[in-house]
Design brief:
Elements: H1 11-14, H2 27-30, H3 35-41, E1 48-51, H4 58-68, E2 73-77, H5 83-90, E3 102-106, H6 113-125, E4 129-134, H7 138-141, H8 144-147, E5 151-154, H9 160-173, E6 182-184, H10 187-194, H11 198-211, E7 219-221, H12 223-230, H13 242-256, H14 260-272, H15 277-292, H16 298-313, H17 318-330, H18 337-349, H19 366-370, H20 409-428
Parallel strand pairs: 1-4, 1-5, 2-3, 3-4, 6-7
Helix pairs in contact: 5-6, 9-10, 9-11, 10-11, 11-12, 13-14, 13-15, 14-17, 15-16, 15-17, 16-17
């Protein structure tokens, strides 16, 4: 019978690829003719930033790139490295060496400005080759001076098929697991829980094997076992990073596209991931005006009421209010006419500063009235339907249109009313 599973070194570390050819995934960077492959084949390695989710190979790729070009490799973590430790590494280069060492900094987005600035001189002079790894978009987390000195490469989460290869390689090639008889029935389930993260998939597999009955042969890894060791599918959501912006964008576009189910899903992802409910509510208020507008003015009122209610009630009850309002907004008639109109007006206002016509000015003093302020203005309430045809724009802008009525029932009703007012006013002249 198999003996109980024990290992001091985690499985993910034990089966770390030993060459670039052994890496699973990232073909867009490592396949024949791909950017990183071309660099190492030429024996050249510039400073780079590897950007992508956790557990997809950033550290491994950095180590293997350094090895492929024969450079010494120094690994630092931004979590526990200060400026002093950083400078010690930067100053440790052998002055007789012609090859600059590769300094790998994991989670480089956690470096503050002073720490990032400390890298600039060494990177620019070529004293080191920097490889930074970050789970956040470098545009948001790495300062521009350092970013301009590095090439940025985006790594992709592993697909389900690639996760399956990783799991099978672990079972057949790991020095410990290959001694066991393992029946992996939950391969797809592990892939779903891992969300493209190979490390998480391997950790789940290892924990399941450790938890399984040691007297069982084969060791059956089914969904029930994986479910017990995982407890819950931990939602991968970084509310301070790029994924925050991606999921907010997905929520807004789902509402704009009138898909209540997708809108609820993305909002649920945000809530489960710890996004503040009032942040979501504020985005919905903006959306109600930008994407629904006068097609349904009640949308803005409801969204604003939801914001105030969410702020006063809080989670978890606030989810009910947000659920109601996001469904209402998603199923409402849509119009961006007002949004386009104010943008067009502001664009013109940036380059046009025409004086206010005299008849629209307020003649509050005798001198102003003598200069013509207010002269020629007609008070609309003195006329039928409280409307009188007169110009309200500067002479050079007469006839300019910013607002176009959209093809929804409410705005078309407003258009019909405005057309009727103008017809009536013309007939009364």
């Amino acid at each position: 019978m198999p003996q109980p599973f024990h290992a001091d070194t985690p499985l993910a570390q034990r089966i770390r690829p030993a060459s670039l050819d052994a890496i699973i995934g990232q073909a867009h960077l490592l396949a024949e003719g791909a950017p990183l492959r071309r660099l190492v084949e030429q024996g050249h390695l510039p400073s780079i930033i590897l950007h992508g989710e956790a557990g997809i190979g950033k550290t491994t790729i950095a180590m293997l790139l350094a090895d492929a070009v024969g450079r010494p490799f120094h690994a630092l973590s931004a979590i526990n490295t200060g400026v002093k430790q950083l400078r010690e590494v930067l100053d440790s280069k052998d002055s007789l060496s012609f090859e600059s060492p590769v300094v790998f900094i994991d989670e480089i987005h956690r470096f503050n400005k002073a720490q990032q600035d400390a890298l600039l001189g060494a990177v620019e002079s070529g004293d080191i080759t920097l490889i930074g790894a970050t789970t956040e978009n470098p545009s948001f987390s790495v300062n521009n001076a350092l970013l301009s000195r590095c090439q940025v490469y985006r790594l992709q989460p592993l697909t389900s098929d690639q996760i399956a290869v990783v799991l099978q390689r672990a079972i057949t090639e790991d020095s410990i697991l290959k001694k066991l008889t393992i029946d992996l029935q939950a391969q797809k389930f592990i892939s779903e829980l891992a969300h493209g993260d190979a490390r998480k998939a391997l950790n789940l597999l290892e924990l399941a094997i450790q938890t399984a009955d040691p007297n069982q042969s084969p060791i059956i890894i089914d969904e029930a076992l994986i479910g017990r060791v995982a407890q819950t599918a931990l939602v991968r959501y970084d509310k301070d990073g790029e994924q925050h912006y991606d999921i907010v964008s997905a929520l807004i576009k789902s509402v704009r596209g009138s898909d209540p189910d997708a809108a609820l899903y993305w909002m649920a992802r945000m809530l489960v991931g710890g996004e503040p409910a009032d942040f979501i509510a504020r985005r919905l208020v903006l959306l109600a005006s930008e994407d629904i507008g006068n097609a349904n003015p009640n949308a803005l009122l409801l969204a604003d009421a939801a914001l105030r209610s969410v702020q006063s009630i809080g989670m978890p009850e606030a989810r009910i209010i947000l659920g109601q309002v996001v469904v209402y907004l998603a199923t409402s008639a849509k119009s961006n006419s007002s949004y386009k109109a104010i943008n067009a007006a502001m664009k013109l206002a940036e380059k046009d500063a025409s004086p206010v016509p005299l008849h629209l000015r307020n003649g509050v003093t005798k001198l102003m009235r003598n200069e013509g302020y207010g002269v020629g203005y007609t008070y609309p309430h003195n006329y039928p339907n409280h409307y009188y045809l007169q110009s309200y724009l500067p002479d050079n802008l007469i006839g300019t249109r910013f607002y176009e009525f959209a093809d929804n029932q409410r705005e078309q009703h407003s258009k019909q009313f405005m057309d009727w007012l103008k017809t009536q006013a013309a007939s009364n002249e």
